[in-house]
Amino acid sequence: MFDRYQAGEQAILVHVDFSDESTREDLQEFEMLVSSAGINALDTVTGKRNSPHPKYFVGTGKAQEVADAVRLFDANIILFNHSLAPSQEKSLEALCQCRVVDRTTLILDIFAQRARTHEGKLQVELAQLRHLSTRLIRGWTHLERQKGGIGLRGPGETQLETDRRLLRERMVNIRKRLAKVEKQRQQGRRARNRAEIPTLSLVGYTNAGKSTLFNQITQADVYAADQLFATLDPTLRKIKVEDVGRVILADTVGFIRHLPHDLVAAFKATLTETREAELLLHVIDIADERRSENIEQVEIVLNEIEAGEVPQLLICNKIDRLDDVEPRIDRDEHGMPIRVWLSAQQGIGIELLFQALAERLGKQVIMQTLSLPPSEGKLRGRLYQLDCIINEDFDEQGNSVLDIKLPFREWQQLVKQGETNIEHFIQT
């Protein structure tokens, strides 16, 4: 129904500098987006304006310059580093005789390329349908309004109305399926809450190094690349933190300037892991000159998804790209870690991150000596599973004498869930 760009196509990029800071976009970031989509940029047309032109967004003279560039370079698509109104897209396509794609559609299509899980694909499709529903009429400009011909006449419904109805039905269907997935996620979260396992969530600007850090910490094999939106589908892994015990670590989608609202809305279910996390690990590309702006943009999106109040630990990543910067922990006036400087790529400073996590999450630690008779092999096995045994000896009666060290909440779980009373075996 719609003309869509394809990877490998030849594009003219259009970028406008506006005087209003809130609407300004970053050209270098846009070029990375285009590259991530697999499109070949032939030329970039830039300009300055105080406000968008109502018909062409860029003004009549600049629009003609774009049309000339399309003919000169034999391009087959125009990519705007801005969100365009449907009428502006239509006017530009008529003038340039070439497809026009705005920044929002480009980001949505990159997400569509990267989605791997069933849930991710549904969320992207819902976001695309929301966005494209406002541009529906463009798909049918080559048709007459009324169906015609033998066997094609409907009950008085125009082609456009039929398609709007089908679109609405598809969106309702996707929402129902996503609600099912969200129910399953909630059950998983409830189980983790019952087991009192804290969740950490990696957040940050796209391409800050979240997946590389995730792989370093968990020894996982999550796809990580030097491109925007390399990670789309959330990944959860268990890790062990000293004096804290088991912790769930979630890798999430990266944020970007002016992230389309349709995407934020569609991914709210996925980002629940971020909202309900005990601690956010905010990964920052410390070597990026625009790091302050990127931090600000991440904070904006966190507030949008209602995660602005969740405590944060800042991870200053990519220190290997800076001169004379050593891995370290920065602390607040109370001595609590607030920033960790490291390089996920080189594996430098990872042990400092675990130290900071232990301090931020650590509760009271229990140290006990237990004397377990041979009949309590199951409890002994459970203690080994928890990796909390410091030392083991055997007394003259054949009892296993264990020195254990574990977080208070894991001790509480053993007390509550154990078939036998573990407190009965404490040596005084």
TrEMBL record:
It comes from the Bacteria. SUPFAM superfamilies: EF-G C-terminal domain-like (SSF54980), P-loop containing nucleoside triphosphate hydrolases (SSF52540). Residues 198-365 form the Hflx-type G domain. Pfam families: GTP-bdg_M (PF16360), GTP-bdg_N (PF13167), MMR_HSR1 (PF01926). Keywords: Cytoplasm, GTP-binding, Magnesium, Metal-binding, Nucleotide-binding. One of its GO terms (molecular function) is metal ion binding. Its cofactor is Mg(2+). GTP binds at residues 204-211, 229-233, 251-254, 317-320, 343-345. Its main location: cytoplasm. It is found in: Cytoplasm. Mg(2+) binds at residues 211, 231. GTPase that associates with the 50S ribosomal subunit and may have a role during protein synthesis or ribosome biogenesis. Monomer. Associates with the 50S ribosomal subunit. NCBIfam families: GTP_HflX (TIGR03156), PRK11058.1 (NF008280). This is GTPase HflX. The lineage of its organism: Bacteria, Pseudomonadati, Pseudomonadota, Gammaproteobacteria, Alteromonadales. The gene is hflX.
